[in-house]
Design goal:
407 residues, single chain, Rossmann fold, alpha/beta, three-stranded antiparallel sheet, formyl-coa transferase, domain 3, 18 helices, 13 strands
Amino acid sequence: MSGALSHIRVLDLSRVLAGPWAGQIFGDLGAEVIKVERPGSGDDTRHWGPPYIKDAEGNDSREAAYFQSANRNKQSLTLDFTQPEGQRLVRELVAQCDVLLENFKVGGLAAYGLDYESLKAINPRLIYCSITGFGQNGPYARRAGYDFMIQGLGGLMSLTGRPEGEEGAGPMKVGVALTDILTGLYATVGVLAALNQREQSGVGQHIDVALLDVQVACLANQAMNYLATGVSPKRLGNAHPNIVPYQDFPSADGSFILAVGNDGQFRKFCEVADIATLADDPRFATNKARVAHRAELIPLLRQATVFKTTAQWIELLEKAGVPCGPINDLQQVFADPQVQARGLRLDLPNALGSNTPQVASPLRLSATPVAYRAAPPLLGQHTDSLLQRLLGMSEMQIAELREAGVI
């Protein structure tokens, strides 16, 4: 194995998305990632279909596309740690691992002796990362947390959707489980920081990452807009609370995005759109003025943009140095020449005898590039080999464990 983290072994006890997303990043960066799953059923997302990955004959397999999005470069080990023998095996594995990822409810693993304090006694160098909905303390700590409810509770949905008074107005979740994804990224950063600190101290630590904390942290400028004024920001649809014009506009054949970031770009846009007088209007000459007079400016711009196609606007505005772009569906995204040039779609051979399509990692490291070693595994695909290689178990011992339902 090669890669920036090829010296790291991760025991991934997490399910669904936030934890597995972090585990996949470690795998992409070269770490050995062992995904522990329930015998017979595995990660919940294995069954979150359709759609499913095709097998060698072109038929739907039982492998859901959802699972494939967050589990490449991992080995699947089926293990029932609700049984004492399963707990013993986890402890033996922990002794040989650098990192443990888990997203069980607070206290859930303590009942099996698999909490941080118990495992730290076995491996003081262990980095133990707990991902929960609400963190290890506080009045909500023992609640289950899911991305959708956290988007609502954490304020994101109050900022997303059409403004009040418009048709279809109302709070709206983001189209992907963004809170889970961001939590996986923060978990990754936390583990990497702890690994770096371990190089100096020689000991590991516990990392507490909560979906709600991440969601509130990622409100970014909108959170600061509230904290600075005491006024909760309102939904603006595709518009920006602090910059105008920065939203979608109608074209002769659809819509496009105009992302004006300063007064000079606004003047250039007005010149291209043949409405140069607006750039000299005191109501619109500066961004501060445009924000104050948003309701007057936007209809005037919409009247001008409908006379050219999206492609024409993009060609003209790019030449003028005004940020703009189309609104693509996913077919258009993966057909885009820049996306293709960056190799963002790839295919990995799988154990079904077919290929699993994947979205490439956005990380580009010059000396230790990301390696796509393996498609997401079948349930329990590596159980025998891992128990033999890491724990020195014989075929007979493994057969006995399987007969007892431990693996």
